[in-house]
Write a structure and sequence with these properties.
Chain lengths: 304, 304, 304, 304
Amino acid sequence: MTDFQEVIEKIARSLDSVEDRGTVASYIPELAQVDKNKFGIYVTDAANHGYGVGDADQGFSIQSISKALSVAQAFAILGDKLWQRVDVEPSGDPFNHLSLLEQENGIPRNPFINAGAIVVADVLFSHLDNPKKDFLSYVRNIANDESIDYDEKVAISEVKTGFKNIAAANLIKSFGNIENDVDDVLDFYFHQCSLKMSCRQLTHAFYFFMNGGKCQQGRKYLTSSQAKRINAIMLTCGFYDEAGEFAFEVGLPGKSGVGGGIVALLPNKFCAATWSPGLNAKGNSKLGMKALEQLTTLTGLSIF
Amino acid sequence: MTDFQEVIEKIARSLDSVEDRGTVASYIPELAQVDKNKFGIYVTDAANHGYGVGDADQGFSIQSISKALSVAQAFAILGDKLWQRVDVEPSGDPFNHLSLLEQENGIPRNPFINAGAIVVADVLFSHLDNPKKDFLSYVRNIANDESIDYDEKVAISEVKTGFKNIAAANLIKSFGNIENDVDDVLDFYFHQCSLKMSCRQLTHAFYFFMNGGKCQQGRKYLTSSQAKRINAIMLTCGFYDEAGEFAFEVGLPGKSGVGGGIVALLPNKFCAATWSPGLNAKGNSKLGMKALEQLTTLTGLSIF
Amino acid sequence: MTDFQEVIEKIARSLDSVEDRGTVASYIPELAQVDKNKFGIYVTDAANHGYGVGDADQGFSIQSISKALSVAQAFAILGDKLWQRVDVEPSGDPFNHLSLLEQENGIPRNPFINAGAIVVADVLFSHLDNPKKDFLSYVRNIANDESIDYDEKVAISEVKTGFKNIAAANLIKSFGNIENDVDDVLDFYFHQCSLKMSCRQLTHAFYFFMNGGKCQQGRKYLTSSQAKRINAIMLTCGFYDEAGEFAFEVGLPGKSGVGGGIVALLPNKFCAATWSPGLNAKGNSKLGMKALEQLTTLTGLSIF
Amino acid sequence: MTDFQEVIEKIARSLDSVEDRGTVASYIPELAQVDKNKFGIYVTDAANHGYGVGDADQGFSIQSISKALSVAQAFAILGDKLWQRVDVEPSGDPFNHLSLLEQENGIPRNPFINAGAIVVADVLFSHLDNPKKDFLSYVRNIANDESIDYDEKVAISEVKTGFKNIAAANLIKSFGNIENDVDDVLDFYFHQCSLKMSCRQLTHAFYFFMNGGKCQQGRKYLTSSQAKRINAIMLTCGFYDEAGEFAFEVGLPGKSGVGGGIVALLPNKFCAATWSPGLNAKGNSKLGMKALEQLTTLTGLSIF
């Protein structure tokens, strides 16, 4: 049996001395101030045991990691109709490119590029009574943790500088694939991305993806088939244009964010979250990628 | 000597019976209501004589034709520095595509695609005390006609539905190539496009392009070299992705607008404007293109 | 325990009455003559038991399925250096597009688009004494089946009409990423694609991918890590621009070919091959996709 | 009246001391050996007077300049049907990109990108009895100069290293827009590009473009309308993705080649050729561009 505590401590030691920790995201002013030396890993296994090391309990901005949670909520509400609004194919392009949107009539390639997540936000905005409040409740319930909250400063920070996202949303709207007011949808989207969570909390929130749709408390949020499908999208699209590389090196479905967090999971085995704010050239956490690669190598646990 | 009156009457007769007049632009609600059967031509020659036929005195929304006037004003203000903000190459793409913007770091291909004209509007917004008022004065002075005005209804109509332009402006802003507030720049841009002018007025306004920078009243608005250069951009970029076709069939520098107007000119000889609201698949006036083709064929006057 | 025989018979019955079987590939004349009603499934489980139904023993042109075998041989020879010649990212584009090649300096996106497989063929051509003979031996050994052979008619048929592949190879050569003579490399590549195998034989040949690199006879062809990595590429890139869809609907690493074959596998559990010559719009076997979707649904076996 | 001799001598003096002469094309081995300091200008005016300076009588490889002559011959043979095989729009892309070909079903953007010139070569190959011989005769007749010839060494040099052109030709063939054997068409195309001519000879050969289709000896090779149309294509497409810049700075229809030659003309006035082997980043002669810019500035003669 895998001794996760031993493994993650070994990983943390091996990465402790790494000098090149990548570059902290600077395009969101609030994120630029984060200490680059922060590092945490947390693993929750299928039996609900948890294992942590480093800054695993410190909250950080989960950013794009939130896209897995929003698409889960939208999938539960809309079922397969959701895929008429957004596709499930890898984009093959960096995460902020609009080119494909123009070629493909405003149907984003997948729900994990910004354009796709904005369409998902629009879906939720149409179906939730109080979008910001209801999405937050959803995340709190899934993670069984009422302390999770938006970081208003970060959310506002994005509203002010998120020109590419405003561009994407308006371009999609020009094709008729956004139903609500663009400003409303983006305000909701930026709040969703501003969620502040720790590695521990993230493994609790993502537990249902590795557990056939059921959270740690046994509540069903997705059918088993739906959970599998979101895992498939995470594997093929969860890491911008480095998705192939992550599948190749790590071999787990997962989702990263520019706040430096990554969550990855092995169905029916474990869910792991890492946090290290420095990013590589493709926008994924440099040490987080390495840590997860070591995790699958040392444990021999991967989907392949 | 060319008898322009005879020529344009002949053209008008030959086009009178054409059944397929193209499609009136519908994306701006106010434009969609225009009568498709309207048709006018007006020619002003170098000696200041004017020749008209049909609806040559009825005002219509000049839309993108205004881009030639705004780039002239910006060129006069900024000189060659303007070309650091916008390039002078044909785009090879339809007029609303954002793809190239991403590849080329927010420097639009030329001042006649929407993205380029928005950058030009930003330049004017930075340098004019009262942008909307001052640009309108500029056009009135150049055309020597105080009756020219914005069409507020059309301007507002664009603000509401111009999602692609909002997308373009925000994308450019994300690359740092827009200095002012995006909403302010677009409000100015939409007003500029809403200018209502007749064929006659357009030939007066464009007279200085064919006259080495001097208007009909002899005032100098551009150096001779600057006038030539804008003529060159009109020839290579004035007709979206049909610029080559227009040069090939007509052989004159010119600029078209989705309101169905076209202005074209032969340096030191004449300036001609046509209006027919139905557009071809590339967004240029169907009958206007034919009329100008006949004009150069019948008179033997073209730059080539 | 899964009764594969029962499951695949159920699948075959359910698909028997499907009328729309897609379109048989016509661009290779020899393939166009295949009977559209052919249908076979074969499963080999980890314990070496085999289960077949329909035309599971009839040979067909495996085409692109061969790319998984050639990349395995090249990976074993060159190790991680192989990935300097070809990347591991999904292309997001149809299987025959050259555009990305130009943007990315002749490094194909992954070894499963034609451009990438041609680079792999070039690697093998440089390292094998007798490329065609040695690659064939490799496949025969892995599958433990001396009856496997090239179909010369098909190979020649491709040489004559493979203009896009000739274009791709020359474009890559222009970037210096092909070492040998283009004609030699393509002749080898077309032979490799012309391999004729049955569903049964394909599950034997792909057994080592699901068995940590060891074939049914226990010979080691890849390290466990290498086998996992090729599985990862199959999952993210094995189905042209339908890779996301296949991961989403089926949830197994796999590889398809325009001959109508598909092989898919669940590590340490089973390897399955289907054959139905009719293709969908994206070039994958229409009934094969459905059969594999049912296989994972009925057995509950998938990597997610 | 313009004293061309004085003007070109002044230009030659002003450019004599320029240190940065660009980079000699190296991709064709035979071209790489040319002396970078060579420089010549020749002007032939409408009255058939000639004016030369520097190396105006030394032959060099005209390369892409030949495309204007081949499209003239094909236009005379096929008439407007030619434009079903190749378009007349600027490409907006560097001269060797294949991307647009894929998007536009094998119809090249214009006859001056390599892909378009290869289609033109295919047209001539179909219609000429002895393509290489007949095209050479055509050029000799037009220029009234039997000494003009192919440079076999250069032609062979291109056959060996022209991988991008082979790629383009095969890609076009895959769309059915090349009728003949690809190797035959390319052999003809490479010969055409290998033509060795001096500045003086080039102005003689291009005289008919500026003279309504009639050569210096008064023979008619194109209708007046056809000559104008090729001039229009030269203006919008004659300088790769620097066509807009050339129109903007120089304001004449023209055609450049990687051998360092440029021909430009003002209808009914003059035809000028320059030669300086060093190229700028876009593949056009660095000093040639400057010389022609000065020519239009000093004489005030341009189409705008």
